[in-house]
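Exercise 7. Given the components listed, write out the predicted structure of the assembled complex. Treat all entries as one system.
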Amino acid sequence: MMASLLSLLNDYTLQNVMAGAALLGLISGVLGSFAVLRRQSLLGDTMSHAALPGVCLGFIIAGGRHMGSILVGALVTGALAALTMLLLTRLSRLKTDAALGIALSVFFALGVVLLTHIQGTHNASQGGLDAFLFGQAAATLRADVWIMAGITAIALTLVAVLWKEFKLVTFDAEFAASQGMPVVWLEALLTMMVALAVVVGLQMVGVVLMAAMIIAPAVAARQWSRRLESMVTLAALIGVAGGVLGALLSALSRGLATGPLIILSVSAVVLLSLALAPGRGLVWEALRLWRGRRRLRQQQVLTTLYGLAARHEDPVFRSEQGLIDSYHGLRTRTALRKLERRGLVEWGEAPPGEPGPSRRWLLTPAGRAEAERVLASLHEEGA
Amino acid sequence: MTLPLHEPDLALHVEDLTVSYHSKPVLWDIDFDVPPGVMAGIVGPNGAGKSTLIKSVLGLVPTVAGHVRLFGLPYRSHRRRVGYVPQRSSVDWDFPTTALDVVTMGLYGRLGWLRRPGRRERDEAMAALEQVGMADLAGRQISQLSGGQQQRVFLARALVQQADVYFLDEPMAGVDATTERAIVDILRRLRDQGKTLIVVHHDLQTVRSYFDWLLLLNVRVIAQGPVREVYTADNLRRAYGGQIALLDEAGRLAGEGDAS
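Answer.
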């Protein structure tokens, strides 16, 4: 196993694929963080689908599968789709989601039409163009990797240089504008850089699954981080790890598509993060809910005992189990046991000569104090 | 480049300002002046254009007509003299950052391009947090702050701007009584230092005690001037129009005010 892994890592093609996947994870993790925080997750989806007509136009204009013109084409139509979406929301009464949906479907439909047109003209080198739908990582050349590295470097430099501007525009665009920042340009730049990430992802995961690459690492990272700095860093790491893992899995399994495996790897991290992240995860949330309910149940039982004692003007009034159950309409033995363990109630003897069960529940002095505290805090909240 | 001064003795001078949204006027021909060193309230019914007025003064929404001067100059030429507290609900408080970091954002404009906030900015932000009584919570996630605490953070972010004119959009909306008192105290202290405060406010009951200058707004200017002269039952009725319940309440309040 180890030996086969090592020989795999020496494989030239796999090196290219892994480098490309890592670069894709890096750029989409960083830019996706901003997109997700700006609630523009779906913009990535629209722009990646809209890259398809650009790919086809690049192919037609260059007269073949020429990487440079295909990438430029993807960049142009992706940006055009974003612009269309912006104009639609500005000039019409359409809401953002509808505008995104319209831009996505129109551009993607156009792309599919162009794709079938190219296939219909029986161009000899048409083979592999439909690979841009779902990606074809194995076809990644060293030259492609260099292009991807260049684009990633540009995007990361911009983010580093304009860090505080991007942060403020993402958090509070109006305040940024009131301080004189060119908010429209900064937002446009952030959006256009998503198009750069899409271009990097074309070869690896294709236009259909690219949106997941933008959204997933950022969503996962958000679960674990308390600052934008750590979120962006973590999203980049998750993206890189997911990319490399997907590439390796695909190489080991022989024949399973790399792009979807990358997306699945990253999605696994998302699911884990959504479930487990401390403070924000679902498991954590459920645990907190359950704990809260249990504590509330105990408090209710305790105040019931307190109320009974008060009504009988006997601080050590002894209540039967059945009586407490009927007060709450359900079984309270578990809650009472827990309270007993906390030293708040006692499972004492019934008063001599009284009919009924021989053991009863009564409050301890600590239990009385606790019940009074609970009741007082309830009154405070009510006020 | 020197610009000719226009009404330099006024902290804020708004003339003929009109703003429309989809051909429906939101603000119509607004003339509005605020002298320096007062705490001015902008009051009016829902949809009167109160927030829009502040935003158009700050150049955040496009205007159809009119002009705005701050101490005689357009806003663009001296942003550093202006502080802004947007509505608390205008941002997503689930953003991953701390209270201190949000306050530091108030200094980004002064820092300019490429420079990053350092120790000096950090200390200034801490001092502002202390002023609003939030120093203990400087490192707290903003999503874990209560509404009142979030409002204080926003106020601190404006305080570090060290401005001469502050625009505040409903700073007392949805905060507890303690926070409201604290905010009013801070605003009064600023006014006593000679700063000008222009506050969008929604609670008619507190207008007389909080403000010394008042603009009653309902798309048009209903009345403006010293609060004693403007806050009358008649003016309130004209501003709030058909809102009957409010009208009675306002009439009663203004009546009480006149008697005292």
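Discussion: The beta strands of chain A are 345-349, 359-363. The interface with chain B takes residues 37, 39, 93, 161, 163-165, 167-168, 170-172, 174-181, 222, 225-228, 230-231 of chain A (CB under 8 Å).
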